[in-house]
Amino acid sequence: MPPKAAHAAPSADTHAAHAPRDDGEPAHASAPSRPPAHAAHAAHAARETLIRSNKYDAIRTAVFALMNMSAALMKTREEVRKGIAEVAAHTVERNRLTITAAEQAAIVDALLNDMFGLGPIEPLLTDETVTDILVNGPDQVFVERSGKLVLTPLKFRDNQHVTHVAQRIAAAVGRRVDESSPMVDARLADGSRVNVVLPPIALRGASISIRKFSKRNITLARMAQQGNISPAMLQVFKIACMCRLNVIISGGTGSGKTTLLNALSQHIDEHERIVTIEDAAELQLQQPHVVSLETRPENSEGLGAVSQRDLVRNALRMRPDRIILGETRGAEAFDVLQAMNTGHDGSMTTIHANTPRDAISRLESMVMMANGNLPLLSIRRQIASAVHMIVQVERMRDGMRRVTRVTELVGMEGDVVITQDLFSFRQNAGASRDDVKGGFETTSVRPGFAPRAAYYGQEAALAEAIKS
């Protein structure tokens, strides 16, 4: 049966002031005269001009000369702010500097950020329009807003300044980063993920990559309203959770996999025991019976590492109703499939892949890495019996994250895993480079999990969703 349009997706034209963030949220609506991103850019530019002025140099020199830095670091931020403000006021009066109260306050904040925070990029952590912060050496700071990378005017003093901030981030989580150990993964106090690479590995200066942690829970209903999914997909996803389907969310970096996983998890019954496993805690499950586990890297002696595979194996001994793995990317794939095949229905995970078929191939490769003696046909049979649905998400060129395909695994035919698409996103030809026009389509085929939906009393709701 030919596919029919289920829901037209908003184009970049209709969402110029409401483009989604990396976490699936829209950016704040633009002010009539000046969008927030432009205002933030102007504010950062003004701050950079001030920090590179003689006024800043004079106050900074006085602060470091008159304050005991070791003692200051033992005090609270507000206590140090008061001390810096007093030194700044004294310096302004003594040197007869022409400076406004706002400029003086900005200099005090900048010095505080250097001492306690992340230097010039500290204000970006509280900017809700920013989802990623990318530092490429001292002279380049990029941010992602509304799905697009933008160069900011923010700069560090020099490469040593970037390195100092990177080492502060690592030290806060008990890690070390220097020339002998030039790469580290860490997490900020707010949950944001950080990756650091120092010279000589980073050829153009120290690199800091921050994926900000979103504190906002995005619902499937909100995603349908924004055009990330169609209303019909919304209903099928709810039914998939209620019917305890094993779901894999597939997509590239920054495509919104974790956001969708969070949204799906909101429809898990509150009476179930859920065990989550992640490298860096990002899932925000609201159910009352959740056990959250997090991997641990090895220490400086190369000991103490706890891998995702270790945690998946241990989770099976914890009487979980469902296991949710933040991302499958290695040997743990075999154990996840085992869990899905041994009574832990409704388990979910994400995987880096460009299509549902690629996701299946990646699972095969991961399982073979962990169990080289296992025949490929046996692996495929495990995948076909364990995984019910693969949801493909994509960050498209207009910055919008969309579910581009919902694919069901329906069994084996010979040595091939058989799939069928339930939904897809069809992009219209002829759109401009930064615009995406198209719509969501349903194939109107009867899902293979329809008998399961009937068992859970969702057969009529599923039929209505598929034909809508």
From TrEMBL:
Positions of the UniProt region annotated as Disordered: 1-43
One Pfam family this sequence matches: T2SSE
SMART domains tied to this protein: AAA (SM00382)
InterPro entries found in the cross-reference section: AAA+_ATPase, P-loop_NTPase, T2SS/T4SS_dom, T4SS_GSP_E_ATPase
Domain named AAA+ ATPase: residues: 243-397
Gene Ontology terms, MF aspect: ATP hydrolysis activity
Biased composition (Basic and acidic residues): 15-26
Family: Belongs to the GSP E family.
Protein name, as recorded: CpaF family protein
Organism: Trinickia terrae
Origin organism lineage: Bacteria, Pseudomonadati, Pseudomonadota, Betaproteobacteria, Burkholderiales
